[in-house]
Write a structure and sequence with these properties.
- By secondary structure, the chain is an alpha/beta fold.
- The protein folds into 2 domains: about 5-135, Rossmann fold, CATH 3.40.50.1980; about 150-265, Rossmann fold (3-Layer(aba) Sandwich), CATH 3.40.50.1980.
- The chain is about 35% helix and about 15% strand.
- It contains 10 helices and 11 strands.
- The chain has helices spanning about 25-35, 70-75, 90-95, 115-125, 125-150, 175-180, 200-205, 220-230, 245, 255-265, and strands at about 5, 10-15, 20-25, 40-45, 60, 80-85, 100-105, 155-160, 185, 210-215, 240.
- The strands form 3 sheets. Strands 5-4-3-6-7 form a 5-stranded parallel β-sheet, sandwiched between helices. It has a 4-stranded parallel β-sheet with strand order 9-8-10-11.
- A hairpin with a 5-residue loop joins strand 1 and strand 2.
- Helix 5 (about 125-150) packs parallel to helix 10.
Length: about 270
């Protein structure tokens, strides 16, 4: 009897241990490597940079928003991995219409990584590897959860973009990750998952920390310095945070949880 696995939109996928995969999601590309599915991965995006340098041997089909269909067709994939937040729905629909088995992912909480491991591992014949990864994940999650019991809550503004300034909503994966360390994301009241904001004294008064993420906008110390000059009364709130560690799901969630604990108790500059 054929086993089916259901993705984030309820679509059923049969087991395909010989499937040829194109991943259009950087964190899922890394997950495929960590599940031992390297020989099944035939295509990736230019933003799939881990694990380096091994990932560079996999053909790029473009970006997460726009791909070269001719290159993709030439790779003769059977499956394409996408994500609700990272890839346009129109792209996923076009790929499905072209006959590819499109696997849709959409983890909203850190705990959703368990189902993600089982989905990808189950479809592509790496169930045992997925189970081992889940065990590591559970240990990391338990460690952070236990430690967080002794950490006071801090209100944070997590910045993902400038010109315009943009942040995250409390119902995002990133916000759930931060919440594990009692870092509560500011609720702007916007219905958008990634709302634009006015970065001013009024909003800064509402938070204890301003977290400048390293992606998608590549914030660096120079941006923190500029913030401190513009808002001297809030200068001590500025911190640079490794976005890959707190926004990438998949196998990156395991070291990400350890990073989060270190960040929560790390030195403040």
């Amino acid at each position: 009897m054929t086993t089916h696995f259901h993705d984030a939109i309820g679509r059923a996928h049969e087991t395909a241990p010989d499937g040829r995969i194109v991943s259009l999601v950087p964190s899922l590309t890394e997950l495929l490597f960590d599940l031992g599915l390297t020989d099944r991965l035939v295509g990736r995006t230019q933003f799939c940079v881990h694990p380096n340098p091994a990932v560079n041997k996999v053909t790029s089909v473009g970006g997460t928003k726009k791909i070269d269909m001719e290159i993709l067709r030439g790779l003769e994939p059977t499956h394409v991995l996408v994500n609700v937040d990272e890839n346009p729905k129109e792209m996923a629909d076009d790929l499905s219409a072209a006959g590819y088995d499109v696997v849709v992912t959409h983890p909203l909480t850190v705990a959703d990584n368990r189902a993600l491991y089982r989905l990808i591992g189950g479809i592509f014949g790496a169930a045992e590897e997925a189970e081992r990864l889940e065990t590591k994940f559970d240990a990391a999650l338990d460690a952070v959860t236990s430690a967080a019991a002794g950490w006071p809550e801090r209100r944070v503004l997590y910045l993902i973009w400038r010109k315009p300034w943009m942040t995250i909503a409390p119902d995002t994966y990133i916000a759930d990750m931060l919440a594990l360390a009692n870092l509560r994301s500011l609720n702007t009241g916007s219905p958008d998952r990634y709302p634009e904001i006015c970065l001013d004294a009024a909003i800064l008064e509402r938070v204890d920390d301003v977290l400048f993420s390293t992606e998608p906008f590549p914030f660096t110390e120079k941006h923190l310095d500029a913030f401190r000059r513009e808002f001297p009364d809030h200068a001590a709130k500025a911190r640079l945070i490794d976005a890959e560690m707190v926004s990438w799901y998949g196998s990156r969630a395991v070291p990400g949880l350890h990073y989060l604990a270190q960040f929560r108790n790390g030195p403040r500059t």
